[in-house]
């Protein structure tokens, strides 16, 4: 192997073009592939910007040609030569019009044969790719999202800075507080038996910053939650975090619409229309069965409860007697695709999300097949058809439940399954939506008490403040989520800045004064010295990049992601530690039950 010597890069591979033809330049990178054609050798050189073809022939100095004959995939090289027009042009790479005629070559590092080909379009086991993540990231389809992520982060920083925000780093070793997901804990060596938590969010600190007079703060914050993984969730993730003083929710939404408009324009060259639509949480749940509705297609949920008022059909009558709800969707024109077998599969989806079953009517030219119509009166059937605009070729799907949210949620998942399976969703659309007016509380059967739907510092809507203690289930929050194509990309709220109201919130959530002070005492004390009206929000940066680049998983936009069991295959984390480290931390391990 050789050193670079006096050679230093003058150009990046993916940034040269016909405008540079005739120039002498030095490039470096890894050999993507080499092809010896007998007397002439072609090699594709790859760096972080793209690929450039290298050429060696009979006019190449002999010692250089001899080196070129030894080139193999992933050898690291630096070379100098003259850029010229390519004889056999190609549009497969951005530099397909040119090639570098090499006069000097240095092989800086040789490489073993990799366990899989370093190119796109390969079919390789995910475990193998993650174990050799450093090789997988060399492939263009894996490399480019990480580069684009960096560009997105830079645009975010520039935008916030231009709008009077200050970037401030908050601690990552913090106090563990109740509410939210499970914390990752870090034992203290100097205070045995005491623990830090890794932040699930910088929530308390960013509010403290507003009380510290910083007015507008942002941070690309690393956050941690000890929860089960899925396609859009990792135990550690990056949050675009922000907090603003002397604003209301409209100001915050407007500022963030400007950020998203700039991102989509500068990264994707797409002009998105602002302002975004706003939809109350009650409406989102009622129409789409989701607080993050995908509005790229129809199949909206319809409330048909009144249709069955006084019905003798026992399942529906029981639901009505319990004060429940009956909801339906009309899968218009899908009778030919929604066979009985496929409807049964949809029924399993509904049951997964809490429904007792999925009633259906399938309207075809041959007649109607239904699981419930024979129990209806002609008037009920006619009213149902009219309400749902039912015609031949349609399939009516119905869920009933004593809890209207459960009925809508189950039917909403059926809706999404139909949309995905039968091609109703336009993948090229970017449908943004604000979901607003969330419930302030949600009841936890496990805890046996009301919990904050967002967090305990969320401001109730003005008209609901008097109901915080007396009727928590009827209270709504000044909260807002930004939803894109059925994915919650971010969310936030206005915060309470009245200490008396904050005390009432803690009591409504079942906190004793001692527990509230133990958990949030430093914030409660700070409020006593004057708190401006303030609010904020946070985006999941990983989700944002995933959605922008139309990737299926946030793992594709994170350099070193975790897998389903929260491990990282490349490094082997988490791992055992030696006994001395445990003794230093006053920790003794026991066998799990």
Describe the structure.
By secondary structure, the chain is of the alpha+beta class. It is built from 15 helices and 22 strands. The protein has helices spanning 62-69, 126-131, 133-136, 140-162, 203-211, 249-268, 281-288, 314-321, 340-352, 378-388, 404-421, 499-508, 513-527, 541-548, 579-584, and strands at residues 24-36, 41-47, 50-56, 76-85, 98-109, 166-167, 185-187, 195-197, 216-224, 236-245, 278-280, 302-303, 325-331, 359-364, 367-370, 395-401, 432-436, 441-444, 449-452, 479-484, 487-494, 534-540. It has an 8-stranded mixed sheet with strand order 6-9-10-22-21-20-17-11, sandwiched between helices. A 5-stranded mixed β-barrel has the order 1-2-3-5-4. Strand 7 and strand 8 form a beta hairpin. Helix 7 (281-288) crosses helix 11 (404-421). The longest helix is centred in the N-terminal third of the chain and has 23 residues, at 140-162. The two termini are 55 Å apart. The model has no long low-confidence stretch (mean pLDDT 94).
Strand residues, percent: 15-25%
Low-confidence stretches: none
Task: Report the major sheet.
Answer: 8 strands, mixed
Mean pLDDT: 94
Q: What sort of overall outline do the alpha carbons produce when their principal axes are compared?
A: globular
Secondary structure tally: strands = 22
- Report the radius of gyration as a whole number of Å: 30 Å
DSSP helix fraction: 25-40%
Number of helices: 15
